[in-house]
Structure prediction request, 593 residues.
Amino acid sequence: MSVDKQTVAKIASLARITMGEDELERMVPELNGILNWVEQLGEVDVSGVEPMSAVIPNTLRLRDDVVDADPLTGGGKRDDVLANAPAAEHGFFGVPKVIE
Amino acid sequence: MTDLTSLGVKAIRDGVASGDFTAREVAESFNAAVASAAELNAFIVTTPDHALAAADAVDAKRAKGEALGAMGGVPIGMKDLFATHGVQTTAASHILEGFQPQYESTVSRNLWSAGAGMLGKLNLDQFAMGSSNETSYFGNVASPWRREGTNAAMSPGGSSGGSSSAVAARIAPAATGTDTGGSIRQPAAFTGICGIKPTYGRCSRWGVVAFASSLDQAGPMARSVEDCAIMLGAMAGFDAKDATSLKMDVPDWEGALNADLKGKRVGIPKEYRMDGTDEAIIASWEQGKQWLKDAGAEIVDISLPHTKYALPAYYIIAPAEASSNLARYDGVRYGLRDLPEGAGLQDMYAATRAEGFGDEVKRRILIGTYVLSAGFYDAYYNQAQKIRTLVSQDFEKAWADCDLILAPTTPTASFPLGSLNDDPLTMYLNDVFAVPASLAGLPAMSVPAGLNPDGLPLGLQLVGKAFDEQSVLDAGLAIQQRAGFDHAPERWW
Prediction:
């Protein structure tokens, strides 16, 4: 399978990355090079093989159902959470107007 | 007095403990070495005050007769992928420039608790995506090594290139690295140092900027196997904040080190003999077999039939996970915001990400978005995950015949910066020997084997069973004792 400029533009839009015409032109052969190369995976017989979900056998744990069980990941940290926001306002993340 | 910057982790820790020198003297020496090595561009920010404060705390403890910790008095470099409280953490990207974490990653916190201090945040490939340290927003890192008779700047490998460059140049006794598909082992091999990626889950990923979460694993980089064993012990441990953290005790790897390999079977995978592998690398591999045999191991031929598919599978899985992980960089919560005149929310996301990500990062996000998109998910992503299962089963089957595996770390020695940039694929091939162990989550280490005819370091790789870092370290020690690698790059910086 290979991609054309229109497809790359669609992927870039899905990934929320603005790309100019030049950049799209440049990406097409680069992405096709990679996609053609990974195409070889199609040769492998994978019938009956399960896709890997966990690389090392491990059990999923549940934490204790307690508020702020671990203070490092607990609540009450509004100012810390907002400390790096480009536009924090009134204790919230500021964004451009979304509703017209 | 000894030049303190010539010492490694163990020598510094033991010297501070026995009072041969103070932790402050050590920190001052390395701070000065870091300051005089700006040409390497190994650090994005330096933190001499952090190193001094940690050293003073260790010296004060010693005065009071208290225990100094496994890394007591050792100043280290911290890859700038670990969140450090109040110290800029960028992942070498523009999008995180100026980001000051309000928390400390578990791995760095563990190291500080063990008495280590921080010399600074080390440069890397942007979001750990690269094999040459040429994708950083903050410029390329140069290896301290040069090809004999030339002055061309060489690659320190990647993505932990600041780490490898700093440790090889003796401006840090050790550094943290992270390995997603070879990012500890390949730079270690390129610069003549040691580096181990432990079993997936040994080191907490909490507070490590995520690239591909099912593969990312932190580990130490240092100039000896003993130093790696000490530092890994300080980094590892169960962390409830990481859902994939291993709930297992951390063994005393340092205390149990044993270079006698009697009774161990070392597998030599025939599929690793690939076209295009450097002659000198093949020769070092042969030499490595001999060294392990001398140490008492039995050498056995094994087969890992899906080896050639590991790398292409990796270049689906890692970008897929990256495209998801990097969706968080949106110009809202932290980092860069690019808000063009009159732009709405969606335009702001797209403009911010266009401005904040480098080319390689964009390329991988696009590949990842494509292989996960409707209609292609099965053909690409699911197929790759099935092949990942097969790669992992190859290792499982091999363990019937051997206890660990010896292979080259890389197909070539280091190359000049800028020489492999025409085609992303040629760069990817650097990790062809490193990626299989990553896909299977196995512990793997690179140790220096010798120099090639150009005077550049070559590494040998050891891969072990899950949770068996000890055998990997032991075999690494056996190679280290026989290789006697004591070469240091000639200072030009």
